[in-house]
Write a structure and sequence with these properties.
One of its GO terms (biological process) is protein folding. By secondary structure, this protein is an alpha+beta fold. The protein is built from four helices and six strands. It is rod-shaped and about 120 Å long.
Length: 194
Amino acid sequence: MEDRAPEKQSSYTYWVREATEDVAPRPVPRKLSAADLSKQPRPAVLGSVWNQAGTWEERNLNSWASNRIKELLKSLGSLEFSSGKAYIEEVTKCSGDAFLVTVRNKKRVGYTYEVTIKFKGDWLIQKENKKIKGHLDIPEFSFGELEDLQIQVRLSGDEDLSTDDKMKICNDLRLYLAPIRKKLEVFEQELRDR
């Protein structure tokens, strides 16, 4: 009598298909030529070549954004008031971050900045023409929040001005808010289009 090992019962069945004339032939691998590659359509992928999956890529736009904000704000020119005139001398501080993020093949932009603008002006105060200098501070502004933009006015060399005169000058200078907001809206649009 022969000792046979009992046959093992498996939990699955593996089927092998027999090739017949009805079945399509198996594909034969071949090397692609440069002409074959040039015929293939190129997918429209955002981001760099190494990030073909398109999951995440961030570009730092600080240098471009700082220069562009300064350029736009310097172009404001002068503003006439009921009792005076002021003009932008220079943008003394422009600090913050701007970035372009590509997430799952979609572009998203953002920024956060603080700006200080130096101004000079002439006001008629108590029938006397006075030269006024100072700074306009925009404490913080970021993408999509330009409606909440605020300006703080700092006057320099204002010792001989009364409180009422200072208030009048500050209120006049706050009229710069609308043109500054328009320039920053232009900046936001340019940032989106990058």
